[in-house]
Amino acid sequence: xxxxxxxxxxxxxxxxxxxxxxxxxxxxxxxxxxxxxxxxxxxxxxxxxxxxxxxxxxxxxxxxxxxxxxxxxxxxxxxxxxxxxxxxxxxxxxxxxxxxxxxxxxxxxxxxxxxxxxxxxxxxxxxxxxxxxxxxxxxxxxxxxxxxxxxxxxxxxxxxxxxxxxxxxxxxxxxxxxxxxxxxxxxxxxxxxxxxxxxxxxxxxxxxxxxxxxxxxxxxxxxxxxxxxxxxxxxxxxxxxxxxxxxxxxxxxxx
Length: 255
What we know:
The chain is α/β, with parallel strands linked by helices. The protein has helices at about 10-25, 55-65, 85-115, 135-155, 175-180, 190-195, 195-200, 205-220, 230-240, 250-255, and strands at about 5, 25-30, 45-50, 70, 80, 120-125, 160-165, 170, 180, 205, 225. Helix 2 packs parallel to helix 3 (about 85-115). The longest helix has 29 residues, at about 85-115. The protein is globular, with a radius of gyration of 18 Å.
């Protein structure tokens, strides 16, 4: 069984991944910015890890000991039109969703490379391959994450490190409800914001995502990109087949 470090394990997808991997007999190292939020998470270790702070990453990796697999799950989102979203919020999302994942990967890769084995699993989104209005900063952070992950797959595959990107669509967690919303009173983009639930489509459960993550970890030759569930597969297939002459989903929005 593998020793798996999970970022953002206190709730949602991260917590479900910890439950699934623990049930399958893996050694789980659950991490979160506030370790007290990990109470009740089945894990061999529960550690403080803020992926945006180098010292925190270094300390958690040292405390964890041998790490076979990293599941980079920590992340957040916001709701806002690009015309008016605070750039500080865009920077924050990139620090957390994108650079945070790279920071952890950099921390574990030397040991993985030296022993000739390791797994990096990045929890991305279908929004790493397409965009949705009003969630542009999140989508941009996931596009960048997927670029980093694919580059890592090329650079580290020679050393026995396998890289995968897990791509759920909408997930039935509290993430969207917790997201900061930046809309002014009588904001002209409000109708587009109100259409989000329709265009986000059918959701999957955190447990479904967790099962996909666990299957990917246990696959002897995992694919680079792994959609989660039929809804994600359908929309990613439609995006691949759509013309490049106009934005994807433009017609569906009737905007």
